Amino acid sequence: MTSPDQPGPADRLRAALLDDSSSARLQSALAAGTYPDARFVPVLVDRSGIEPDFFVRDMLTWALTRHSSADTVPRLLYEVGAELPQARSQALHTLSKIGDPRGWSAITPEILRDPDDEVATTAWRTASGLVPEGQGAALAAELCTQLGRGGLVTQRSLSRSIAALGDVAIAPLQASAADGSRDIRIHALATERLLHDPEEGFDAAYAEARGQIG
Questions:
Q1: Measured in Å, how far apart are the chain's first and last C-alpha atoms?
Q2: How confident is the model at residue 3 (pLDDT cuts 50, 70, 90)?
């Protein structure tokens, strides 16, 4: 039993994840996943929201996937509503990696339209991976409201998420290609090309669509 004057496992992990060395933080996250403990979950989630190093964040996500989804999913669903964009994005990313159907409840129109591009792109990927049977068409229609958004990196991410839904995305894409602005029409046509031929690649599909619109 831990003495009242001694830090418990969660406190020790929290302190370790504040180390100045990213490699030390990486090792701490690795240890937390190798030896799971439900007390680690809030610490791992909290750190994910502020951790500056990509590789450490990736290890934090891995550590969370090693814990029971009964402990992680409720905490991550709460975190999707966090104020910090990184916290929202990392929570969504981790939910996608866990793959628990309950993660779908985080997918709302608000999160799919999040003003932060990183959050939105993560939400799109997570949604296309967790969408329940029978809800793909509604998701495709919602994702198509974001066509034309941002630069090519953001648009590429959206196209891949829409294309992953399959044929249910064709009708809303065609509607957008017919009635949207020039940018939306190009993006819709490029996405439909990608859906039919994933090997073409987004950049090539976008160039062809732009040439078609003129």
A1: 72
A2: low
